[in-house]
């Protein structure tokens, strides 16, 4: 229904829409060189005189062919994230939306209507994603600007006060708000570079979902349903923690968006891809209902009412600046939508072709079996007469020959016994070469051979699948497959096994599923062979030992299950990936997890609390070298911040000198004083070289500062995971207060005991 082109290229994932004048939808897109393009009826609002913004230059109108005026905002630094929305309570805040702009070192809320900054905040952790909305039970603050950065989450109100703060496991790559728990409030979905989707209810993590790649995009669909996209080309939909479907492409999803394209009251999932493809899918089945193609990669997808008639249009922007808007199709014309895009006919043809292929293969199998049976009958007929004559002559030596011939003939067929089953088992193999592994054994219940096994598993193999097919000389009724899990995560192994008689050309496919326990990477060892970890986390546990034993049996691969009836539990393990030791000790009222790895201890505490249903859990912890690491980190951060301030001051002084030299050179030119003109330009050249060198030093300093802040935030996040519920929240908040106060002793105490 609407198509135009923006004057500049668009940065991917930096597209939003807002009512900056309080009435009309305006499209905002980030462009290279720190510029933002505004397209729509409200784009010209910022051109009014009297703007007080010190960082945003006055918007300049740029004509776009066949479109309304496009306004350019110069932000002065590269844009890394973009969002729009009203902050605060709707009853007390102004009607117009604010434009939220993130960069590598700051977060700006810009009032387009008045050409002024609503607030500007330094962001040492950087800004990689922004979402605007009301979070959970945050009362009295209204809608927040939720900002994700370097392992941190910050929520700003309309005045720029950080009323929400938390940490996450890695750099934040995407954010969304969704009613995940179905409570009527919003939970914060956080996708990060450690392949995790974390769900925050206020500042508490209520769910963690492990994926196979960086979570590049998230969006809420309806109720507890949300969509996600990964950097490896995967797109899927979850309903709470249950995955409804997923698909994988060789291209990368750039944007996912929920929009009711066919007016049936249920939104479709719109996905924009790096090759310019657009597709709309049924959110519950993944079936394609609409598709389109752009000549270049998609940059973003939004819904905007450009015609001001109350109807939202599906608006898609490409990186080349092309903008297309689509009308939702009335319900009675839904079939027309499918016919127009060719999706319905294409899917029907594909389905028919697949059915045809399956029928042809089945027919071929019947023909081969019939040929084998006919050959067997002919062989039996040829041997029946000599056998009868030999029997009449009193000879009894022909029976074995008949059986052998019959067996040879039957081996050429693909038939297997009707009671054939495929069984699987998991065990730890510490003697496996070249490295210890988890051994997956696949075996049949009779003498039929396993020709090949295909294993599908997330996060275990490169490409999520593995095929094992031994040579014909080594075929047998069992097959061992080594697995090398690298992360502590429960994984479902989906197996397809090709089974048939030895020498057969066709095989029966058996499908089965086996679950790999969460901590399968740890192998049980004897107490006398295990090292004693120096680090530990200790907590009181008012649970029966039998339940703790059940948790151990469900999460570790054990040769013999642990029995919680015989007194204290003492289990020793060693990591097959790193060789680190782990000890689990528990008695009637307390438990100790012995490990030198703080991250592993947090994962074990989180898994145990979730299994036992513990809402609150306090703990004490001690890890070797933690105090020295904290001191080194805090000292480095202080040094980098001081160096950054010094470099910024030097660059500001040099910028003032540049202005003076330019004025002096211009005066000399007007006076014809070419000696001083030459000297001024020489000084400008030297000063420019110094500025370039200072910028390189500042960039290196910023990178080192970001890495140090990330390490500190990860320590705080791991300290929180050593507890559960309100004790976890208290530990994270106290750690942040200690960092703000530069109180290293208090920070170490909080990590150890959970409180200041």
UniProtKB/TrEMBL annotation:
GO BP, sorted A to Z: non-motile cilium assembly
Compositionally biased residues, Low complexity: 371-394
Domain BBS2 C-terminal helix bundle stretches: 726-752
Protein name: Bardet-Biedl syndrome 2 protein homolog
BBS2 GAE domain segment(s): 436-519
InterPro entries: Bardet-Biedl_syndrome_2_prot, BBS2_CtH_dom, BBS2_GAE_dom, BBS2_hp_dom, BBS2_Mid, BBS2_N, BBS2_pf_dom, WD40/YVTN_repeat-like_dom_sf
Record-annotated Ciliary BBSome complex subunit 2 N-terminal domain positions: 16-133
Gene3D superfamilies membership: YVTN repeat-like/Quinoprotein amine dehydrogenase
Domain BBS2 hairpin: 627-721
Organism: Macrostomum lignano
Predominant localisation class: other
Residues covered by the BBS2 platform domain: 523-611
Region (Disordered): 370-397
Keywords annotated in UniProt: Cell projection, Cilium, Cytoplasm, Cytoskeleton
Cellular localisation: Cell projection, Cilium; Cytoplasm, Cytoskeleton
